[in-house]
Amino acid sequence: MAADVKNKNIADGRVAAWHIDEDTNQVVIEIADPSDKDVLALRDRYGSGLVRVISGSRPITARKVTTSEKPIKLQKVSKSSIAMLEQAKSPSRLLDFAAYNSAVRIFTLDPNGNTIYQCTTAMHRKSLTEVVTAGHCGPTGATFYQGYYDQAASIAYYTDILGTVSLSIDGNGNPDFANIKASVALSDQQYTSDVVNLEEYVATTETSDSIKFAVGQSVCTNGSFTGYVCRGATVNAVDICIDTDAADLVCGIDRATSGDGGSIVQSGDSGGPILTGSLSAGAQVGGVIVAEDRFGLDVFTSEASRI
């Protein structure tokens, strides 16, 4: 059955996500607008007790893609110039801090130089000079910058070249993540002491294989566009496979849903951290934001233990 789902041999390729419900020992298949015919065909094929069909839409990757009519200009600026910039509510994420920290905005340009992909950093790998973000944010070999895009001026401001993607994985039964080989030395410290609103940030940047999400667990997100938000979000599915607008069969994915009807993710948050634990006790980065659904009410994440 799993092979059929993975190979998209059911429901004419309209499978949006699927996972194993260990409590009922069923395969839960989410299909865009499932018909009675779909449900009956699956029950006849596998047995009514082994399959449960529910309605689900195709998740959309949470990277921000912008195309300009003219080539995008790269402009390096000093960190001290941040006081003059008003393009974001949290400018410290854009230029002030080293880009290997969590929740910092990063971007890469396409080879033609007129399309920019904006994403977020999640964490760095312990004992390695690599930063983790989402795989769909850029292919192996892509150069990432720390900074942000001023669309009106068609200028991408940056303080440093973060580095080059050494490995980008997305789909084909794998999770969605990328390792960026940093061009600057990494540090174990998160944000510098001059941050005023410390509650917006997290304390741990390193990935930890010990963190595994469970259904019902409370989580928060920290994308560079949305900022740090919790909104009573809880995990409602673990180790699922999804199809996104960027890749088919992205597996090893967890899903969490907002608890108060407010968005917890938006375009540009891809690659950012999903967190567990309280800030006061030391929140930990447990995964990488990869996609959204229902206008940001649902967030999909590659769990840190699987990447």
From TrEMBL:
* SUPFAM superfamilies (UniProt xref): Trypsin-like serine proteases
**Any single biological process term in GO:** proteolysis
From which domain of life does this come? Bacteria
Q: Which InterPro entries match?
A: Peptidase_S1_PA, Peptidase_S1_PA_chymotrypsin, TRYPSIN_HIS
Transmembrane region positions?
A: none
The protein's GO terms of the molecular function aspect are: serine-type endopeptidase activity
What name goes with this protein? Serine protease
